[in-house]
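User: As part of a screening pipeline, I want to sanity-check one entry by hand. Below is the sequence and the SMILES for N-acetyl-L-glutamyl 5-phosphate. Please return the complex as structure tokens so I can compare it with the automated output.
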Amino acid sequence: MRKLSMNRDWIATARTLNEALPYLQRYEGATVVIKFGGNAMGDDDAMASFARDIVLMRHVGVNPVVVHGGGPMINDMLKKLGVESEWIGGKRVTDEATIEVVEMVLAGRVNKRIVQAINAEGGRAVGLSGKDANLMVCEPTDPKLGFVGTPVEVDPFVLERLAESETIPVIAPIGVGRDGETFNVNGDTAAGAIAAALKADRLLLLTDVPGVKGRDGNWVTELTALQIREMISDGTIGGGMIPKTETALSAIEGGVRAVVILDGRIENACLLELYTEQGPGSLIRQG
Ligand SMILES: Nc1ncnc2c1ncn2[C@@H]1O[C@H](COP(=O)(O)OP(=O)(O)O)[C@@H](O)[C@H]1O
Ligand SMILES: CC(=O)N[C@@H](CCC(=O)OP(=O)(O)O)C(=O)O
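Assistant: Here is the complex for your manual check:
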């Protein structure tokens, strides 16, 4: 057995754990959906650190559900194949050739990398896409976007069974159509729909910025639905932050207790959010 020495790191850890104790009880049995964006993934060390957070959550009785993105990884593969993407409102215009690549990258390489990282840290993770057990049935979002889907039915059955067996689901944002089509779903949108179906206690949207930036250029710690709508219409919120904040609003309307948009690249981002008084990021909550 490894011997623990009373070094400063150990003391810092003990202090942190002591501070975290009241929060451990608060979240016992809670369902926390974590959206892990492609830009938040980083290198193998960052991936291992994320995986450790998820495994620790599971150990203290939280039901973590991971929904991932992988936009930059799709871009890399499309570039290799000489295919260019167009974006409308933070969503990739997806034709037949593109959807094949999107499914291969997300449900294949990216999904398995996360599953493997969690399992390597001592967790038990299972990789799924929205096609598995009809988890996420979609309809086309807009004819202009091609095979981009909006989730219309999320069946949490398989997720509930996995939670009972303390297994961590890792979900690629691929949806299935009523006629068996494959849909590309924005990762934030998928995470929001899944969080709403589970009536999750928390939805954490991990990205590569500290949260939502306000009109004055400062990061906003808490936002109301009204503020978000105003910031989208006056252009303060743009690009990929649009689907993120829209997801936050629909998740709250769908019964999720709180949504936090935060920087997934910081060490222990998820744990800091759940187990400290003032977590990092921008909080949007019910009421
Ligand atoms: N008001 C804003 N606050 C923060 N980020 C914003 C804002 N408006 C636009 N953005 C952009 O949104 C990006 C986050 O979205 P995106 O790149 O799609 O993230 P991810 O890949 O993690 O899902 C930020 O990097 C930033 O460039
Ligand atoms: C419709 C749509 O835009 N889908 C995204 C799915 C991946 C994703 O959302 O990845 P990030 O979270 O890393 O951005 C895409 O094709 O890039």
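Points to compare against the pipeline: Residues 37-40, 69, 71, 207-209, 212-213, 236-241 surround adenosine-5'-diphosphate (ligand 1) (CB under 6 Å). The mean pLDDT is 92.
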